Amino acid sequence: MNMFLATAAGVGHDVPSWVTGFYLIVLILMVFCLAFEEKIHAKKSLIVGTFAGFCLVTETIIGYFTDRAHPMLPFGNITLPNGHEIGLPIYVPAIDWSVITIILGASLFVEVTSRSGIFTWLAIKLTKQSGGDPWRLLMFYGALTVIFSAVLNNVTAMIIVGSLTTVSLSKLDRRDLLLGFLLTEGLLTNIGGLLTLISSVPNIIVGQAAGIGFMPFFIKAVPFVIVATLVTLLQARFTFGVKGLTTEREKKSAADLVAGFDESESVPSRYFFWSSVLLLMGFIICLAGQSALPWDLDELGMGFVALFFAGLALWFYKHDVDTFYKAVDWDLLGFFASLFVVIYVMEQAEVLAIIGKGLQEMLTLPPQAAQASLLISAAAASSVTDNIPLAAVLAKILASNPIVVGPEGSNPDSPFWWCVIFGANLGGNITPIGSASTVVAMTIIHKNNLSLTFVGFVKVAAAFAVVQILLAIGYVWLTSYLL
Description:
mainly alpha, two-stranded antiparallel ribbon, 2 strands, 69% helix
């Protein structure tokens, strides 16, 4: 990298307007390609990786032919605490490795512990507790979806709960409710994705940029998630006509059917099961108290905590760890690494500065109008394209905005961070391509030969999304007022 990296090196420079315009077009093209990922038939890591390579090559060529000073060489120097310097390609330090390690460690940990049957055991246990009552079953499965989305990823949560829903309603002879259940669960995955700092990728990106800790994030998110979940379930009850059992005969018949479910079938080893329970509790406790770890261990970061517990869990399969490495979503990690490189180039080309100026105008509105505008804009954008690059770009811009970070340059309590978090997550409920979990929900719906088109999804889901977004706006207003 050369002239555009002068900003990072603290050297002022003027970027020609045509260069900024050129890379703005490149950014728009990348977002457009991600929006039509399925039409292109290419993985997102390949799409963004290609754009990252293109940005690096063109930036270098432009710098060469403009005959400008090159304050940053193709290799940057990283100074270690002991004073040693390591020469690295500039695209290596451009990547936010804290985000990469959190995703890698958490995904490995969940992949291993899920083999213990802990999540399926919980799902079947709740099904039996419902007694086969459709309304109670919807509440239990809704709560389970939110919890699974918080500790697993949204896609895994939707697959587990969606599969159990299909089996349960088939045994209860209530397939007429299957479409409503699956659609509701798909919407709730994005609400559950708001519960913790590691529940969704936008949370991790924005949380890292804002400096929000695991426990402060959880405390702030819990009230909204509870209210939004209850409202969504009530809305689903009336929208899809989910009613509870009334007669004793109906209750006994349904209870007899679910009594045949055996939660122990999903547990291969009681030792592994209880060990996974303890590991999961330790994992959550260490993440929650990461900032209070003794002996300066807090400086290792949440990424280290995730990788450490993943390593402990892998000891249960010490001879087969390669099978879990294969299960890691390398496409997502490659996508992230490439995305950070693209964003870094966009920052140096002053594309983010241009977007930031537009955002600055929005933030200068009266506080409540500014917060509502940002949240709605983020939700609208994430409904038609990947919310990960959206969150990454907005987080980068907000991190340098004085209205957001304040005079001290750091303000994790700013409501604008939460506008992006709520908008990026809830916007995925507007369309079936707004999030990976709603795509999975549509796949399960079509696999069960249920009729639901793209437009049909929007007609039903948009009403839920509007209510959720309005609740989020009200919650941001309330919490900012209390601050």
